[in-house]
């Protein structure tokens, strides 16, 4: 039965598994950003709340893009469990620190996946992953810039208010 099922797809079991793991990672990232948005909202950081809500929507889009690929290829896409999402954060700065760490972890995960695709000579999936690898340049850039605002502006006085206002204005220019 297992072999019969495999005839329906050129995805190996290993590649299908790592794609599903990535689907879960994107779903977790989406939920985490939504949680960060709620924390910002509760603490008076309106602009950051809007920024994280947008990030959350983007991560869901990433999840659906991977989901569609697995389905389109005849594989079994698994709707992931999302549990134990952090609710409280220490400070606005710690929220942005965690956001950057999350993006770096996602980049590393896609790198590992690309590596596995090459090792198993799955160039179809390897090509599909290029969009995500490129997307991570922007994702990391924006998260890093947001965190740098804490150094550039400083948190004293109305600093946090200014940082919050600046967050949605961060833009990545793809000029190369
Ligand atoms: Fe993502
Ligand atoms: Fe992201």
TrEMBL record:
Keywords: Cytoplasm, Iron, Iron storage, Metal-binding, Oxidoreductase. It catalyses: 4 Fe(2+) + O2 + 6 H2O = 4 iron(III) oxide-hydroxide + 12 H(+). Its EC number is 1.16.3.2. It holds the Pfam family Ferritin. Residues 9-154 form the Ferritin-like diiron domain. Its main location: cytoplasm. It is found in: Cytoplasm. Signal peptide: none annotated. Belongs to the ferritin family. Prokaryotic subfamily. Iron-storage protein. This is Ferritin. It comes from Pontibacter populi.
